[in-house]
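pinging the channel bc i need a second pair of eyes. not urgent but kinda urgent?? the chain im working w is below, pasted from the shared doc
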Amino acid sequence: MDKRIIGLTGGIATGKTIVANYLATAKNIPIFDADIYARDAVAIGSPILRAIAGRYGQEILLPDGSLNREQLGAIIFTQSDERQWVESLIHPYVVRRFQEAMDKSPSPTLVLVIPLLFEAQMTDLVTEIWVVWCSQSQQLQRLMQRNNLTPQQAQTRINSQLSLEEKASRANVVLDNSSTPASVCKQVDIALAMTTTNKL
């Protein structure tokens, strides 16, 4: 593979967006985001949204016909089999979108932001893996504040993903976001200067 394709991942609320925004604005590197493709997958009228409504009923939809994400989240973050069913619909769509975007981009370096890089078995899409890390207590507090969740709700979402320790152990680069945005951006500068050849 000629391109350098960085798989940017980490736990929920660890700071992937800070890193992605810095790479895009300061380094002018194209960013492709799995979350954006996942939202497109369940757009109003899409086959995937129709399948979800067929499984959970019309009450999974908002009055305008769009997905009630809060209600779906309440289902999939507490029932692993239902989460796997939903992901089995969305992940193949996301992979196709990534492949299309990579094929079209002339840039020698690309960043794929994939929160579920390991869980969705998408590591084959990238040439190196960067994991954004922070402490468990920071992750919990950030998620509670960002999404207005109770501690139990936030912990349930964290527990639905592979642990940060496991992700970090499988990374080429670990970015410590337990301090300031400036600190993690300095680490990004160092990581970008590396020529990583040890594909996992």
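so The two ends are 14 Å apart (CA to CA). and The chain has nine helices and five strands. — does that match what u expected or am i reading it wrong
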